[in-house]
Amino acid sequence: MAVRYLLLLAIFLLPTQPTTQAGKKQPAVPAVMVFGDSLVDVGNNNYIFTIAKANFPPYGRDFKDHVATGRFCNGKLLIDFIAEKVGFNSSPPAYLSPQASGWNLLLGANFASATSGYNDHGTLVNAISFSQQLKYFEEYQGKLAVVAGGSHAHSIISGSLYIISAGSCDFVFTYYINPFLYMTQSAEQFSDRLIGIFNNSVTQLYGMGARRIGVFSLPPFGCFPVAITLYGHGRNECVLRLNNDIQYHNMKLRATVDSLRKKYHDLKIVVLDIYTPLYNLATSPVSQGFTEAKRACCGTGTVEASILCNPLLPGTCPNARTYVFWDVWHPSEAANKVIVDSFLDDIDILVA
């Protein structure tokens, strides 16, 4: 069934002056556009029929005003810190909104959805696929041209920062749980297939005007609490097999990004490495001020995510700032900040 909601147009129109009257610098880019999964979804999943939601406590307990916005975190996401880095006071808003009744001039658009992947496959939960997110972006462009005018709209689209976070759910919710896939093709073959789709998706995004693209590498799934619980065979350590699969994928991702950069000379595109800093946090938490990395903050810290992480659970940790993981699939706000801090130089390259 088609989901029918009014669409929230979210753009940020820069003034002609480089600074405000107070002398504060304007953002480094006119807007931030986000595509991907629950690592960057600020609340689109609130408005679709799915069990994969995070718009209830204890999610958001450390966010502004302690509000559960739909972020799969106790506080800020990776994209929140990236938006702050490039000069915005808040993150791109959810693109789907039943309350939207007019044009809202904000700082960008977040098309991301929990469990979204490159493949248009069915998963355990409903989501907005990456290809559908690109269709929403096409709609956004048309509405932007109406509001801002064709020339200004083109300038906003070409100057904006684009963030892609996808591929994780293809592995987690498709490959590893589907015997037909993992018994008939290797993880490397599945990865190669995803890389091909990624290449086509970025080519499509480039054709739609994107010129500054940051692509998240895949995280070290083998170190996530749920992976240790399900695949660790009783050992309280990262699952090497899963991490090896992801390292292969990330290697292919970098090679593809290099190829795209050479093919399109006016395209700035970089891999934003989240694997390395998150792996370091997961394996050496104390050295960076954390106390717990094998269990998540929510509930028992072994299986709770989305609706399994809820106010009825006993035992949720009192201080998420010392935990690497908020729930079993998502880093805490404190870990997200460490991750983004590790690739700030790459963000500078994109927005320069």
Automatic annotation (TrEMBL):
Classification via CDD domains: SGNH_plant_lipase_like
GO MF term (any one): hydrolase activity, acting on ester bonds
Taxonomic superkingdom: Eukaryota
Pfam families: Lipase_GDSL (PF00657)
Family: Belongs to the 'GDSL' lipolytic enzyme family.
Protein name stated in the entry: GDSL esterase/lipase
Species this chain originates from: Hordeum vulgare subsp. vulgare (Domesticated barley)
Lineage, uppermost ranks: Eukaryota, Viridiplantae, Streptophyta, Embryophyta, Tracheophyta
